[in-house]
Amino acid sequence: MAAQALNPGYGVYSVSKAALEAMAHTLAREEKPNGMRVNMIAPGLVDTDMGRKIVEATGGGTDIRKMEANMPFGFVCTPDDIAATATHLCSDDGRYITNQRITITGD
pTM, whole model, 2 decimals? Predict the structure, then answer.
């Protein structure tokens, strides 16, 4: 989501994410003839050290769990939620999915 967030203080980070997204789209088109699938996973807030730092920096305090009331499903996304999506994309069940940006925000 950083490629679209455009939050103050995250300019360089956002630009790097946008560049990776552009590269992934290009690779997906270039490598499709070789049978390679390329997708992007774009998580929102995730319960990680970085997620906690972002919550703290944006005035949310130090407890990421306090954010749960504001989350669409009442809990903060975990690394396991992201891993499940990556596993699906890499499995035979995801064999027809390519050149997609999978946004994981609960919305």
Answer: 0.80
